[in-house]
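Q: How would the C-alpha cells look for this protein?
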Amino acid sequence: MSWIKKQTGLILLIFGICLLIFSGCSGPGLGDDDGKDAVNSSGAGYKKRESKLKVPEPLPRTVRCPLSGDMVPEGTTDRRPLAVMIENAPAARPQSGLDKADIIYEILAEGALTRFLAVYLHGDTGELGPVRSARPYYIERMFEYNAIYAYCGGSEEAKKMVRVQGVASLDEFGVGRQAYWRIKERQAPHNLYTDTEKLRKVGHKRGYEKTVVLPKLSFLGEDEENPNGITADKVIINYLKSYSVVRWDYDIGTGLYFRTNGGKVHKDAVTGKQLTGANIIIQYAKTRIIDNEGRRDIEMVGSGRALLLTGGQVYTGKWSKKGMRSQTFFYDENGAEWKLNPGQTWIEVVPATLKIEY
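A: Here is the predicted structure in C-alpha cell form.
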C-alpha cells in the first residue's frame, strides 16, 4: 500500500506541475489573438503590437498678412500684390471676387459713378470683375503696394503714365485671352472678367513677379482699440446720385461693417453674400473735373482730413502722402498712427466737400 501511495503522490505532483506550466502558457499575451502581438525578451519570433492611436497631422503654419492683418497659410504672402480695376456702375453689380481682396479703394471716376481698385496679396479668386479702365489717381494708389496692375485700357493721361512710370501693366488689350474673357450674361463693357491665378501666370512670364517692398500697416491686438473714439454704428457717403450712395452698417456680432450701395444690399455674385469690411477709412481729397468727359484730377499727394470707422467707433484725424510712390499714412488728431482691426479694409476717397453722415 505504501508503494501505491508513493506512486499516486508522484503522479499527482507531475500533474500539478504540468497544470502550472500550461496555465502559464495560456495567460495574457499568448491567447489565440493576443499571441500574435506579444514580444518576448529577445524580440524574436513575435509581431510587435501596433498602436491604434492616430498621430494628428501637424497644423499648417501661418503668418500674418501685412495688408489685412489676418493669419493666413505660410507662403501666400511671398508674392507681389495684384491691383485690379473693377467697375461699379449699377449695370456692373453684383461684382465677383471683391470679397477676396485685402484692401479696396473706392474713388469717383466720371460723373457720379465710383470705381474700385482691389488689391490682392494672400487671397485669390477664379472670377473677378467686371474689369474696367485705368485713371492716373488709381495708378498712384497702386504704386503704394508696388503691385502688378490689371485693367482694360484707360484715359490718355493714364496710358502715358503707364509708359513713363514703368508700370507692371497687364492691360487686357495686350494680354487678351491669356487672362481675360467676356461673359454672355452681360453686355459690354460690363462683361470683362479675369482670374488672379491667370494674371499671376502672365505676370510671371513678363518678369513682373518679384519680391517688393510693401506698406507697413499697424493692427490692433486683442482687446486693444484706438483712443478717443465715438460710438457710431453706421456711415453714409452721399455721392451726388442715389445709385452711388454708399452705406456701411456695423454688426456687433461679427465686428464687421455691411455694405449697401444705391439703396440695395451689395453682394458678391459668386457667393451671394453681402460685402463687408473690418475697417472703413474716409479720405477727403481735393477733386476737380478736367475735361468734357467728366474725368477728374484728385490730389493724392499731400495731406487732408480723414475718418476711421472700426469696431463700432468713429475716429477723426488726417492723412499724409509725401510722394507719388510713397505710402499714405493715417493719423489721429494727436499725430499717432491709426491701428486697424485684422480683416478687409475699404478706403473711400471722397471730394473734400462731400457730405458724410455717421
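Residues 2-25 form the longest helix (24 residues).

Helices lie at 2-25, 136-143, 156-165, 172-175, 196-205.

Upvote if useful.
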